[in-house]
Every structure is written in C-alpha cells, then in structure tokens.
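FAQ
Q: What does a multi-component entry look like?
A: The components come first, one per line:
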Amino acid sequence: MNFRLRLVLFILCWLGIGLHLAVTLPTVSWSTNITAAFPTADHNWQQQLLQQNRSSRHLSLLLTGPEPEQLQQAATQLQQRELNGLQWHKPAALLQQIQQQYRPFYGLVATSQQLQQLQQKQYQPLVSAAWQRLLSPAPLPENVLQQDPLLLTQQFIEQLAVAPSALTVSANWLEGRYQQQHLLLLQAELDFDPFERKQTALLQQQLTAELAQLQQQWPQLTILRSGVLFHAAAAADSAEFEMAFYGSLSALAILLLLLLSFRSLKPLLLTLLVLSAATGFGLMVFLWCYPQPHILSLVFATTLIGVAVDYSFHGMLATDKGRSGFRKMLPSLTLGLCTTLLGYLVLIGLPFAVLNQVAVFICSGLLAAYLTVRLLFPQLLSEGQLQTRPWLASACRYVASHSNRISSRGAALSLLVLALLSTTVLFSIARFSDDVRKFTQSPPALLEQEKAVRQQTSQLWESRFLVVLGNSAEQLLQQEQQLQPLLQHWQQQGWLDNWQALSAKIPSQSRQELTASLLQQAYQSPELQHYLHQLQLNAPAVPQQRLLPEHLPLFSQLHLVPLAEQQQASLIFLQGIHHPAAGLQQQLQHHTNVYWFDPVNDASNSINKIRMQLLYWVAIALLLSGALLSWRLGLVKAVAVILYLSTAVSGSLILCQLIQQQLNLFHLVATLLVIALSLDYAIFFSSSLPRTEVVKAVILSALTSSMAFGILGFSQTPAIAAFGLTVFLGVMLAAIMAPLISRIGVKHGVANGTC
Amino acid sequence: MRNLLPSLPSLLILLSAAVSPTVTAADILPDNWQPFSGRVEFRQQKQLQGMAFPITSSGYLQLDNDTLLWHTRQPVEQQVLISGAGVSQLQQGQMQLIAGTEIIGQLMLAVLQQNNAFLSTYFQRQPQGDHCQQLTPVKAPVDQFFQHIELCGTAQLEQIRLLEKSGNTTSIELHYTTTTTEPEQ
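Then the predicted structure of the entire assembly, as tokens:
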C-alpha cells in the first residue's frame, strides 16, 4: 500500500472516529456507581442484590437550629418547590396506608406471643388485653371488633410500629429533639437511579440552590444531608474534574516538553497526531465494549497519553536517522508494544470492572498509536529534520558517555545487589490493606453529615444483613419464621439490638391458617364465649383471603428482592451488632438458605483474592518477560532485565509504603504498568540503536510518563493516587537504572552503540 | 462501597418513630376553667361502629407529672398509662406502648391540663352553646383520627366527647370529688 493511500485511509478513519464520537459521546450514560466499579461478588445473588438495592434512592435532610415553627416553615417551603424526580414522604399518611392494607386480614395475623397463648389455650390474658385496648381512649378502626373480637391483628400492627426512637410522626416529616435542640427530618425518594449522572447533577443543583435560599432566609438553620445522591454527585463531580484537569495538565506538560526539546513544530504536530489517534480509537473501542462505562475508568485512562507519547518519541527519533534507522527501531517498538499489551491484558482477566475498562481503552489506544507511528512516520518526517535543542542533546551525550564507564561486571553486580536489597526490604516492610472503603473518599464534610443524621435520628442500621433465599415468597416467610427464635436469642444475649424481617410483618400463609384455626377453637372456650356475650358479638368466620406480600407493597419492596431463575431473596435488617460476625455466622449454619451478607466486607475479601491473583500475575509477567528476552537477547541479559524490573517494582512499592503508609491492590496494578514501561526501556537499551538516541527517547519517554502518572498521585481518590504514585516512582527508578542494562555483556572500555 | 448503604429506607425510620410534644401559644379553652390535677372519677361510653350498644366503663383518672393513670374498675379492672409518648397498656407485667397513639396521649394530657398552646396548634375552636367548645382538627396527624372533639364544663372540664373519623364515638364524663385520695400504685 503506498503512502498516499495509507494517508487517505488514516484521515478517513480519523474523521470517522471523530464523527462517531461526536454523535455517541453526548448520549453515553456514564456510571458513577462506586459499587459497580469494584469487584463482583462471589455469588450471583449477591451481585443481583447489590444491583437491585433501592435504598440508594432514599435521601434525608435534617433541619435544626431555629424554633420549631421556623423549622416547619422552612420544611414547608422546601416541599412546595418543584424538584427534579424527588418525591417527599408523607409519614402520617404512610402509617395510615399500612393500617388500611391490613384491614381485610384481621383475625389472620397475630404476634408470636398471642399465637403461643392460643396454642396453650391461655385465653384469659388475651381477653384482658382486648378489654384493655377496647377501653383505652386510643381510637380503633371501624368494624374491627366484628372481624377480630380479640383485636389480635390490631395489637399486632400497634406492636409492629413500636421501637425506641426520638421522632414523632407528623404529616409531612418526622420531628424530635436531640441534645435539647428541636430537629425536623425530611425524607424523600428519587424516581431515578442516583448514579445516573445527568438527573443527579440537575437535582443536586436545584437542591443546593433551594437549601442555600433557606439558609439565607433563616441564618440559624443547619441542614444536614444524608443519602447516596449526595455521595454519587460528589464522586462524579470529582471524577469529572480530575479527568479534565489531569488529562489537560498531562497533555500541556507533554506539549511543553516537546517545545523545550525540539526546535521545530513538527514533533509537536506528529505527537498530537499520535495522541489523537490513540485517544479517539481507544475511546471508540471502549464505548463499543462498555455501553455504560464507569467514570473512574476514564480517570485511569488519562495515563494513555503518557504511554502513547513514547511511541511518538521512538518513531520520531528513529525516523530522524533515516529509513534504515526506523526499520532498525521497529522490532524494539513492536516488542515494547507486545509487553505493554501483555501487562494490560492481564487486567482484562480480573473480575474488576474498572480495571477491565481501563485495559480495553489503553490496549486499543496503544495499538492505534503504534499503527500511526509505523504507517505514517517514515513519510511524514524526513531524515535529519528533527532538530534537538542543545540542552537535550548534551544531557543525552552526558548520560550515554557516563554509562559507558560502568563495567559489565559492575552493572551486573549493581543490579543483583539492588534487586536483592529492594525485594528483602519490600517483604519486610510491605503492609497491604484490602479495605474497599479506603479506595474512595467522599468529602469529609458529607461523611460527617451522614454520621450526624444517623446519630441524631437514632437510625443506626447496619450495612450487614441476613439474606434468606427461596423459590417463592411463602418459602421465604416460612424460613424466616424458623429463624426468628435465633434472632430473639441474639437479642436476649445482647448480641443484637434490633432486627426487621418481612415475616415479622407478614406471617406465612401456613401461620395465618394456624392462627385462624386456633382462633376458631378459642371462640368456643368459656372465656371467649363470656367475652363475646358481654359485647353481644358472634364469633366471626375465617377470612377467605390470605395476606400476601403483594398486599403490603411498602414492606415487600423493602425486604423482597427478585433474583434470576425465579429465585427470590428476603433481606433481614440488623441494628446494633455487638458480637463477632464469625460467631453469629456459625450459628446460621443450621439454617439452610440463610446467609450472612456484608457487602463491604465481601468486596474487601474479593479485593484480597484479586490481589493474591495479581501477585501471581506479576510473577508470571516477570517470568514471561524473562523467557521472551532470553530468546531475543540471551540468558545473561534476560536475567539482568529481570533483576532490573524487580528493583524498579520493589523500589516503587517501598517508596509508596513509606509515603502512603499502606499498600493496596492499586499499587500492585500499577506495578504491571511499571513492568511494561521499564521493559520498553530495557529493550531499547539492549538494542543496537545509537546510544544517545536511546537515551534521548528514554529520557523523553520517562519524563512524559512521570508527568502523566505523577499528576495522578495528587488525585483526591486514594485508589487513583496510589496508582499514579507507584507508576511515577517506578518509571523514574527504571529510567535511572536503564543504562545499566546496556552495559551487561559488554567488555570493559567498549562504548556500546555510541554514535 | 461506603456509599452503598449509608441509610436504610426511611420506612424503618418511620416504623421506629415515637413522640415528643409540639407546642405553640394561643388560647383555645375558656379562661375560667381550672386546670385539672390529682384524681377524678370518670365514666366512659364508647360507641363502636356496627355495635348495637355502647361499651360503658368507669374508674378514675390520676394525673401526676405529665402522666395520666387511667384506671378502669368496671366492667373489668385494668390500668392504662397515658403520657406524651402515647398510651401504654399492661402486658405480661410490663407497660407496653400502643404505637400510633402518641398524639392521643398528648391530646388527652393537653385537654386535662388545659394546654392551650398544644390545642391551638392542632385545632380550631367553635363555641357550642354556653358550656361547650367544639374543637375541629386543622392539622395532621390529629385530623386523620378525629372528626372533632367536644369539651364541656362550667367551672371545670366535665365532659369530653371524641368523634373519630371511623365513626366511633367516645364520651368521657368527669366527676370531681372534694375528698382527695392517695394515688394507687
């Protein structure tokens, strides 16, 4: 294929990609869900539960400060505003609605204590309780006595709603006091997923404006926010800012470096060509593979600029030496691409969505960069056209001449000692943490507000649950009922403060039938006959209909989650766990299909497994590189490169441990990239290319990579900061040590490859 | 993941909601009525929808420190405790709160203690004849339970009539005695 055709094809592809992205990008639904970003759970049902979790749609606003009347005015004003996709809760109406929904089933539902009394034929306490309720001034629903003379279901409903709290039900909010201060809690539900960026951003903007207006109107007013919406919006804002900021900063720094290194604009234009091809193609493939990509992936993907620019440098410097120079460089560039792709492809195999997405983006981007250099550079740049600035030329000459003074033996010994020392130190000081909560960081002010809302409203529900799996709602309810004595035992032991299960609100059909039949027996007893006679009532017939979860959608939506293959899960919420989880889990073993579900801990465990897996991959990557290199460069040089790579990896991890106090999965992920980039340097230093040109390419490459990754080290997201810092340190160490590779196997005094 | 479940659905919060009183100042009851404290005999007639006759009970009320003991002697002996937190009844030797009765507890105390501030927050007053005041709820949650309540008396509150939204009616007559009796425990 001649050059003109290649150029036309390239321009057509370039325009096509640009057009495609211009159409596609505005419609992309970016995921900001941090749950989706982290490793998938061990079991399918866990993943499905996490995906269908609707609690992320709830939000609370806690108003404190001024007098109660002013709080109520502020709340009323806010609720009257039109806010995108936000439905305010009406607590009083909700309670009444629940009561209404139970109405057709009076006489079928009773508390476990009442059921026990019916089974033991202890009718007198039931009659006394009914009289007590009947004669108390508390209102009763209409016709309840005829349906359920003992008021069993009425008392069941009343007990259901009792729990220690400091909140009062009002029509449109909950009110209470905390430390002598009046508080008002507004609750709402979103009719969209808070991880949908556009909707969330719009609502967040509206809410911020409304709340600011309220605070202006009532300066004493304090508004505390709680809910996933606020965290999702903050995470998305931060990711978007970092992506734009770090991406632009990397590009700017690289362009500045090019201007400072070369006298003409051509290198700058060629680099822009490579970068645009790499970014455009990478983004296109990325969006093809992932229709709902994670925004965090794009932040990681900004590092493509730092890697792709290397190809441009190698291409330009080699082309400057003529066609033969370019041809001579090509095997090293191809080998470098292969090793880098190998490093990133490892990430595609991991069950970690963000890393998979990053790998796809970078692999396709690098392929495009490589093809651009290979197909276009020899024609776009003529021999000797690249005019290096004097500072760069003299720096390269200095490094090349000084590295030539090192003997082969000295280089080998240095690499051996450095590798042994760094790996020993690393193994003795490395402390890994797999705690998934440390990978992301919500703004501290938001976390404080979240904590304060939970504390002041006494809502200390755990993010750990019990999950019951079954094929039907009835099966779930029966299994839950069998579990209830154990939960009560935990409460009695002080291991658990409180729990909420669906079966405590909707008894299984078999239990409803039992209650109804026991009641029919009870109505024939002398105690009940006397009671019915006093009230001039007849014993009611057994209701025909049974109470099912669908009759109480508020409860079933809260507890029941439909799973794949007609399976269902019911969630039991836990409050105040004061016993080691392992001990509680052990007691659950006797209950089939009942599982302890701790999403945070499970994700951390998954991270631990991935980290162990990745450790093997790093070792395998090193061995594979060694094998590949021993075939291309010989055994001695291959061993030297392995020692060199080990030193770069260990050294960067040691420094990260010292700077960041702890290592995590992302440090390890970064080491794969360190290996890939360092291997490039080693390959070029092992080649027969002119030494000063290699030094020049490696200096420019290391500087650009350091800039791209070093900037990420300042990210507010700990995972990204860990990744950026590791690559930055690794690349710097690798670039400093790279000249040692060129001395391996060279007789003392021979200026290897110097031009 | 930290953000996964920062708060459980608000239904749980709602289900665990109890009470604390809300008050504002404005007079709704006649100035000449003496606030009640100590002990008073009562006779209650509760007419439930669908029942042929009212359920009649009698006993005494003992009001001490914002807690009202509702002691029924006829037709059965029993005690109910009323406070700002709601109505509690004796179950297995322990007083247990009836959920959703917070406002009833507050209302009963406000009526007996003649807490004008509370009453004016939730009701609109309309005089009925010379000795009665009809209070119509203007605010949730009271308006969800009651159609209206009627308070009658000359120098003191003597009769309370509660007309529930469900159609049930409760009439409580209070009989003040000059002798004071030690409160029963």
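Q: Is there any commentary attached?
A: Sometimes. For this entry: Chain B has four helices and eleven strands.
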